Amino acid sequence: xxxxxxxxxxxxxxxxxxxxxxxxxxxxxxxxxxxxxxxxxxxxxxxxxxxxxxxxxxxxxxxxxxxxxxxxxxxxxxxxxxxxxxxxxxxxxxxxxxxxxxxxxxxxxxxxxxxxxxxxxxxxxxxxxxxxxxxxxxxxxxxxxxxxxxx
Length: 151
Hints:
The chain is α/β, with parallel strands linked by helices. It has helices at residues 12-25, 56-64, 76-84, 102-117, 130-150, and strands at residues 2-6, 28-33, 45-49, 70-72, 88-90, 96-97.
């Protein structure tokens, strides 16, 4: 298992959780972004810079993804592609995307896009809470534990 991070929009608190997990487990962690990011020195942590542009980072993640890899993203269409390719997708708020919930999440995203396009202010997401961080860390730990058992 490798962990891929859609890093341009990933909160710092979540990156820090991922850095600690990669150092602890040795699982390869790759942050994909269109600008340089500061990462701690570790053989299991690397940064992959891609060109600027719409979905360039997402497309690179999907291209390199293998069955069983984990992608950290809040991008629902990217999560859908990850699931379709046999990977796992985890939202920075701790929500595990799955074949069971991704269609409904895509529909809700499209509905909210339609509302925004018609001029309705739908607001933004709430600030990342301590509960969100805990949920993320718990799901990450479960996935890493499952991987370690199957390795």
